[in-house]
Each structure stands twice: as structure tokens, then as C-alpha cells.
């Protein structure tokens, strides 16, 4: 789990602001709010030495997106895209309650969704404001 690795100051993991640009015709360039990279595989990234661009999912351990007015993208398209890239964890932070009722419940309340990759699909666990634990303070400390 990424949280445990960061909490234990695991060597090789660090936060970065990068672009994710997979080399695929139909791929969309993304600039996540927070990315945790694995320094041990960055030497295989063809663009990394010149610019903050990641092309391979295996370089990324975690992506965090803070939901914006285009919440559909965070809850649907990015879930699919990040899973296809093989990114092990994707966190969706919806503190402004922008997501649809199907994603954050009714009544709408601040929701933190943890997506963990199992084979090629994310399993999702939702946490509400009163359920937040020390795991989520990690984002608060870095944001």
C-alpha cells in the first residue's frame, strides 16, 4: 500500500507534479494534482531527464485527483485510463461534494474514494468525512 510505503519513508518514492503522457494514439495527456513516483524505474522514462513527463504507468505508485467542476472525468474517464496504465492506486478527493449522487451518496457529503488496482480493474472504497483516518492526513500534509 502506498500510504504504508510513504509513512515508513521508503526510499525511491517521492511526490511530483508531472504530466502523464502515454504513447498511444487515443491517450489523453493528464496532469494529476498529486503523483507519487517510483524513482527506481524513472531511468526507463524516455522524457524524464528533459521534462516532467511520465509515459509508463509502472513509474507511478499513486495518483491523487481533487474533484473539480468536471467531476465526471475524475470518477469515470480517469478511473479507466489510470487502470489501463497499471497505476496501483488512484485517490479521488471530493471535499466540495461535486460528484454525482451515484458516486458520493445522498445527501451529498465530502467523500474520499480509494481505488486499488486488482488485475486490470480498480476496486473502490469510499470514505465519508466522519470516517477519515490517519491514512488521509498524508494528503493534507503534502497539499
UniProtKB/TrEMBL annotation:
InterPro entries: Nuclease_put_TT1808, Restrct_endonuc-II-like, Uma2. Gene3D superfamilies: tt1808, chain A. Residues 26-131 form the Putative restriction endonuclease domain. The lineage of its organism: Bacteria, Bacillati, Cyanobacteriota, Cyanophyceae, Nostocales. This is Putative restriction endonuclease domain-containing protein.
Amino acid at each position: 500500500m502506498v500510504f504504508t510505503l510513504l509513512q515508513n519513508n521508503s526510499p525511491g518514492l517521492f511526490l511530483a507534479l508531472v504530466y502523464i503522457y502515454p504513447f498511444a494514439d487515443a491517450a489523453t495527456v493528464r496532469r494529476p494534482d498529486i503523483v507519487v513516483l517510483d524513482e527506481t524505474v524513472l531511468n526507463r522514462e524516455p522524457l524524464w531527464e528533459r521534462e516532467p513527463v511520465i509515459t509508463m504507468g509502472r513509474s507511478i505508485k499513486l495518483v491523487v485527483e481533487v474533484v473539480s467542476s468536471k467531476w465526471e472525468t475524475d470518477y469515470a474517464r480517469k478511473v479507466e485510463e489510470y487502470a489501463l496504465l497499471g497505476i496501483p492506486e488512484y485517490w479521488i478527493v471530493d471535499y466540495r461534494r461535486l460528484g454525482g449522487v451515484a458516486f458520493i451518496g445522498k445527501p451529498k457529503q465530502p467523500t474520499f474514494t480509494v481505488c486499488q488496482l486488482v488485475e486490470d480493474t480498480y476496486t473502490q472504497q469510499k470514505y465519508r468525512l466522519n470516517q477519515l483516518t490517519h491514512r488521509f492526513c498524508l494528503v493534507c500534509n503534502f497539499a
